[in-house]
Amino acid sequence: MNTINETTSNNYIEICPGCLACYNQGRLTFYWFQINKETTLEQIQKAMSIEEIHKKAKTPHACGGDEVHIQDNDFGGGEYMLAEELFGLVQLLQLVPNFDYVRAFKDVFLMGDELDVNHEPTQAFEEFAEEVTTFTSRESEENALEDRFVDMFEISDHLYPFINWREVREYMLQDLERAEINGVTYLWKSY
Ligand SMILES: [Zn+2]
Question: What is the pTM of this model?
Answer without folding.
Answer: 0.55
